[in-house]
Amino acid sequence: MGAARTPRDRWVEEGLRALADGGPDAVRVEVLAKRLGVTKGGFYGYFSDREALLEAMLDAWERESTDGVIDQVEREGGDPKTKIQRAGILTFSDDRLLPIDLAVRDWARRDEAVAGRLRRVDNRRMALLRQMIGTFCSDPDEVEARSLIAFCVAIGHHSLAADHEGRTRLEVLTRAGDLILNRTRGR
To answer: Which of 1, 3, 50, 169 has its CA 20 to 30 A from that of 135?
Structure first.
């Protein structure tokens, strides 16, 4: 009996880890095989080449960061404000999805096809924000503005190096969320 093949999803998962750690150039068949503790021969049973792996990685990222997040948010329920917050936490505070998302964003700056994928994912995320914010805000212009601000805060705060004058980053992000979601805070 021969040795068991390394499952396809393990190649994809290891590729996503490499992408998060070092960008698309870090996704190399030989390196992935070594990290998986296997020879690279099994790779070609699933993928015709490295490009096919990169495509499968983007498919997995897109599925997990849209359908996967939306499904979990709906499964866990709650009011629209809770759902928005949960979707943001799952996507942009998660130790798994966040590094991949940031790597895909960087990659998209240099690759038109990846930029198209990112646009599709971001459009789905914005649609969810519009839908949820629209449940407590009736002005379409305000819905769009709040959605944009929420998305920019979720993504941009990871690149911001500013101090917050006696406040923690978490305190400021929490207050920003309260403003976006029109929540009042007890004083």
So the answer is: 169
Lookup: tokens for 27: 């996704």
Report the half-sphere exposure of 100 (CA within 13 A, side-chain side): 24
The pTM assigned to this predicted structure is: 0.89
Q: Percentages helix, strand, coil for the chain, rounded to the nearest 5? A: 70, 0, 30
Residue 107: name the closest of 46, 18, 12, 8 by CA.
18
Tokens of 140: 């379409």
Which amino acid is present at 120? R
Q: How many angstroms separate the CA atoms of 91 and 45, rounded?
A: 32
Alpha carbons 110 and 115: distance in angstroms, whole number: 8
pLDDT band at 3 (very low <50, low <70, confident <90, very high): low
Integer-rounded Cα Rg, in Å, for the chain is 19
pLDDT in tens, 34-85: 999 998 888 998 999 999 999 999 999 999 999 999 999 999 999 999 999 9
Domains of the chain: 8-180 (1.10.357.10)
pLDDT for res 186: 53
